[in-house]
Amino acid sequence: MEAGPGKMPRQFLCPVFGSSLWLALILQSLISSAVTYRRPVSGGKRQSFLERTLILLDVNTRSPVKVLNDNFLSLQLDPSIIKDGWLDFLSSKRLVTLARGLSPAYLRFGGKRTDFLQFHNLKNLAKFRGPGPDYYLKNYEDDIVRSDFALDKQKGCKLASHPDMMLELQREKAAQMQQVLLKEQLSNIYSDVTLTARSLDKLYNFADCAGLHLIFGLNALHRNPDNSWNTSSALSLLKYSAGKKYNISWELGNEPNSYRTMAARSVNSSRLAQDYSLLRTLLQSVRFYSRANLYGPNIGRPHKNANLLLDGFMKNGGSVVDAVTWQHYYIDRRVTKVEDFLKTRLLDTLSEQITKVLKVVQTHAPEKRVWLGGVGPAWAGGTNNLSDTFAAGFLWLNTLGIAAAHGIDVVLRHSFFDYGYNHLVDQHFNPLPDYWLSLLFKRLVGPRVLAVHVAGLQRKPRPGRVIRDKLRIYAHCTSFHNHDYVRGSITIYIINLHRSRKKIKLAGTLRNKTVHQYLLQPFGTDGLHSMSVQLNGEPLRMVDNETFPELKPRTLRAGRTIAMPPVSIGFYVIKNINAYACRR
User: Fold this and answer.
1) Is residue 443 within 8 Å of residue 576, measured between CB atoms?
2) Number of C-beta neighbours around residue 183 at 10 A
3) Helix, strand and coil in the chain, % to nearest 5
4) Whole-angstrom Cα distance, residue 191 to residue 36?
5) How far apart are CA 99 and CA 425, in angstroms?
6) Lowest CB count within 10 Å: 339, 346, 441, 455, which one?
7) How far apart are CA 419 and CA 413, in angstroms?
């Protein structure tokens, strides 16, 4: 049963204390043969079942409470990859392989620099590249051009294996440019970004080869003197893309509530709605894009001004968009320690923000889908050795679980690959912990969300004390794309933020079923700061540029209690349960 608009269904809050009939029956069946519980004396008999078990878990298998987009977990690339040069390396076999592992998905090309992006129908001018050290710039540019010519001769997907020296020079260039990009972001003053026709070709080739659907963010700050949107650059890009028959969806702008601080110019809600209507008309004028999807307005975190802007946008014609988009970041640059990523109060902020957005959308257009159009663990590129480590995975999986429970249709992760420390893949093209977490989610978790029933057997809280749960449990039908499991299987994913092991007993419809465990923990001596992951005790590494490691489950015998180690993440597939909600 679903909760009212903007409210999280009670069954998703865990632990849940109640006296419902299902719980009474479960408890009765579990203790029917046991004596009355007594506290054991030291050195006495073995502890009773009730003392050893913390959580009883059941799932409603009759019908899903939400049905999400098949591309629920999707990706984002920031236009900064044009300035730091990484866009030229999107043809890398390894990078395309890693992106393909997360398909099907959307790929949003957008971010803070969306509104400083200018399209020029030029093929390949070196002057539009970012600066680089003089001693290698000329040879580096020549290598890029030669690589481009080689790719042009390929048919189908254009993939490359770049020499190590070329990649090393690019990393040097990107490291210098990263300081410039970070300074711009912290000061909120941005320089223009030029997108050439060849750059657009490379971007689309990457998305197409990886099985991703490209969503392109157009510059909304290109304005006429009367503050109306100037469509000249957008129209040029649309005509070029249509001529290439590029299958693209579109956005306009990024965080319009921030324009006053970014460009000393503001766009009110009625003007923003007019701009989107104009873009829809523009798309209809280009025959190839007459039925293309349009998403927006992509507001920032729904604080007062952003929420008012969204409300006015929806009131003044926001129904022109195919889905309503917004963004959320958990942490600002003041974060300095790993414990900040484990704070349950921080994890709960997303639910509060979702409630605000859903309330506005459901007031004006209750049928509209809502997308979390840009999300990351930390703001301003993230924090080194924090937002790119295992610890950030708790925030990321929490985002997916809470968003799914509220019915958020798509979550776009910022970013798949770029500067900073929020990405899924580093600049050596190695997957970071959040990538492996995303890969498991894609392979195991389907779009049908199930109600979770949890009963905690623990001490009552002290009067006046609020318990914010550190054991978070979510359930979906297992992905139909995973042919290792028959339809009707269920995937449960669990976040254990406790510093101690927690035991979970499957009850009700889940009782006495065989379970496949996929347990993620940090690998190595760095603990939560680790940038490597182990699955069921085995480290995860790419076999080669085109081959993933085998993701082997550990089989738990029927009826066995799930033991979650401290500060860990687990996916559990309940096989052959033949859940009615998951058969169709």
Assistant:
1) no
2) 10
3) 35, 25, 40
4) 72
5) 9
6) 339
7) 14
